Amino acid sequence: SADMVQESKEANDDIIENNEQSCPSVEKRTRNKEDKIWIDYDELLINAVMKRPCLWNHTIPMKRRSPLIVKETWLEVKKEIDDKFEVEEIKKRWRNLCDSYKKARNKVTEYIPSGSEAPVNKKKKSFRYYDQMEFLNDLTTSRP
């Protein structure tokens, strides 16, 4: 009976996979389109934000990361990467990158026993910009 359950689960998985292939979700299509637009800019964006800790380092005194300063800093990022983007688009993309980084990082830390010298698992490569975004470690990334 356990085998039967396993077989029907596998058959079910096949159906789900086939459905995904034949009918991609609208959201996924939009996301891929967005990814294509950003492919040339993601690293520029990461570097631009990294150079401006007021956008991600919540340990900086409030007076150095006031709403006005943060607003002006996002405008600098916009100029640095490409003026064609709206600040809101840039902030949204940054949030997406942070979310992807956090997910990838959680996967990595799941596999490393705490306090061990275990090598960092290959899993980390599941996110293209993992290494570039390691500056966010040990900080709760603030939402723009």
Automatic annotation (TrEMBL):
One Pfam family from the record: MADF_DNA_bdg
Biased composition (Basic and acidic residues): 1-12
Naturally occurring in which organism (per UniProt): Cyphomyrmex costatus
Name of the featured protein: MADF domain-containing protein
PROSITE patterns tied to this protein: MADF
One GO term (biological process): regulation of transcription by RNA polymerase II
Residues annotated as domain MADF: 44-141
Annotated spans, Disordered: 1-28
GO cellular component terms given for this protein: nucleus; transcription regulator complex
